Amino acid sequence: MTAVAGPPVTDLAPDASPPPTVRRPRPRLRAAAGFALGAALLFAVAPLVLSDFRLSLLAKYLCLAMVAVGIGIAWGRGGLLTLGQGVFFGLGGYAMAMHLKLADAGPGQMPDFMQLYGQLDELPLWWRPFASPWFALPATVLLPMAVAFGLGSLVFRRRVRGAYFAILSQALAAAMVILLVGQQGTTGGTNGLTDIQGFFGYDLDDPVNQRTVYFLIAAVLLALLALARQLVQSRYGELLVAVRDCEERVRFLGYDPATVKLVAYVTAAGMAGLAGALFVPAVGIISPALIGIVPSIEFVIGVAVGGRATLLGPVLGAVAVAWARTALSERFPGTWTYLQGGLFVLVVAFLPGGLASLLARRNGLGPLARLGRRRTEVAG
Amino acid sequence: MTVLFGQLFTGVSIGAVLLLIALGLALTFGQMNVINMAHGEFIMAGAYTTYVLQQTITGAGWSLLVALPVAFVVAGTMGVLLEILLIRRLYARPLDTLLVTWGVSLILQQLARDIFGSPNVQTRAPELLTGNIALPGGLTVANNRLFILALALAAVVALTLALRLTSLGRRIRAVVQNRDLAAVSGIPIARVDRTTFFVGSGLAGLAGVALTLLGPIGPTMGTNLIIDAFLVVVVGGIGQLKGSVIVAFALGVLQATGEYLTTLSVAKVMVFVAIVAFLQWRPQGLFTLRTRSLA
């Protein structure tokens, strides 16, 4: 850290003045209306308008959007640029896929790939608990949260932050992928866990069941959004924004910024884990290529495009970017990479509040959407 | 003994590559607090420069010699362009710089794919650098790795001398220590930043030339190296070079011994755990400049 760090404190004073709009009835009403609209779109309009194929694509995008909700909290609200959400997505995904693979194989049997690469005689010890859904399902969320808690409590307490934290979170993603690829016999290596047939007794090839999975995913996304809104609107949410904008001042006021950040990081990890778990039945595969450094940072771009400091921005941004990727990379694979790079550059450099900040400027939406336009990192 | 020495030397030479990459990062990160993810693509630019030069200059030895300064200038110029066009506007937002430069790196990678094709290309190593040198006791060291080690050490020495003795070096140190005070003392900090970026990116170009001796050249060659190099800077501490030098070699040796004792993948995880543990002890890195800032 050099003495240059961040803007002078006086910079922040004018922005601190508008009182938090927590308990006014109107925003709550508007949120309820928006929630209902979202539910109507996801549950009624989308299944009617979209073909089965498109609907299953949408299910996949909605899983990515769940990760984005978490990043919106950790990065947009808390200023924690986490470049390793793929790790948590992957932990959730692998936990689910391991269970489904074992269920596919039947009791006492081993997943198909293990004989192929591993030449193992029996199931490895650490696979065994995943045979039980009572272990595997909670693990999809709790395992990522535990890893985030471990890393987060270590680094935040020692005030490792800003860019240092971003690099560490990215290094975690790198290490995870190398580990998965290296242990091919028990993890499926580069191929990952593929060819998942059933989901708790339902055949995933059946379009009706695919549709049910979509509904499940949409419902979970809406629930996560409601949770995120509660979190952001609570006193904790205010504190989180305060930590982002001036961590030292929060510390001097008697709070512990490390705990505040840890909660945001662990929450984001749990959401990513849940997203990964639901991604597996929706897409039928989880592999290192879906969770490494590159996908991890791609999670972030959707959030940046939509508007990192807003509630809905990350979701819409993630879906839009994922959709554009599918639409464009099929036809012009090279062009998509240029476009994606350009998106990073243009949005982050020139529109840091994302598309939401354009709307907010027009509607005067108050402090929530405005946050991204201000200098968001102090003392990087 | 022979095996141990071989692993140790491999570790040192991994460290030398990391060091070449990390030196440039330590400069720019230390001075401007900027995370330049496109640094890896400057490495790639240096490597492809070597490749292109070898198409025109047939002698592998000569082309390598020419490639060193040319790659330095090519990568350095790219760095300065990046600084002028984008990074300069983002000094107040270091984390955003990371994302913006990631975007730039995506674009540069695709550009390389379009120009040189997706498959890796290979350069010919000069004959002088293909063999081994036998040391007493049946130990051998590979010439190319020795060359890279020498190159990295030369870069460290040159950089240290430049920072200590030249007026530019004095200015850089002043800006690193206290940017505001340097500015009010009449140091043109914008120009100093640009020069630092040129040198830092140029060093990535040199690393690229060195890497052509070790393996094939591809559009994504920078991505994997850059994270390790950033870890070197984070653990070494910013604002000075000696931390990076020590940590680069330490990480290299740790990686190589870990790989020897277990497997590549387990070694990577071990290194990561070691780094997190180290940061518990020294969260600001091995050496830090004492400043009066809170962070």
UniProtKB/TrEMBL annotation, chain A:
Entry keyword Membrane: yes
Subcellular location as annotated: Cell membrane
Membrane topology summary: Multi-pass membrane protein
Residue ranges, annotated region (Disordered): 1-24
Listed transmembrane segments: 31-51, 57-75, 80-100, 134-156, 163-182, 213-232, 262-287, 299-324, 336-360
Residues forming coiled coils: none
Highest taxon listed in the record's lineage: Bacteria
Primary subcellular site in the record, as a coarse category: membrane
Keywords annotated in UniProt: Cell membrane, Membrane, Transmembrane, Transmembrane helix
Protein name (database record): Urea ABC transporter permease subunit UrtC
Native source organism of the sequence: Micromonospora thermarum
TrEMBL record, chain B:
Membrane topology category: Multi-pass membrane protein
UniProt subcellular location: Cell membrane
Major place of residence: membrane
This protein's record includes keyword Membrane: yes
Keyword Signal recorded: no
Keywords, sorted A to Z: Amino-acid transport, Cell membrane, Membrane, Transmembrane, Transmembrane helix, Transport
One Pfam family recorded for the sequence: BPD_transp_2
Transmembrane parts of this sequence: 6-27, 59-82, 146-163, 197-217, 229-254, 261-281
Family: Belongs to the binding-protein-dependent transport system permease family. LivHM subfamily.
NCBIfam families from the UniProt entry: urea_trans_UrtB
Name of the protein described by the UniProt record: Urea ABC transporter permease subunit UrtB
Native organism: Micromonospora thermarum
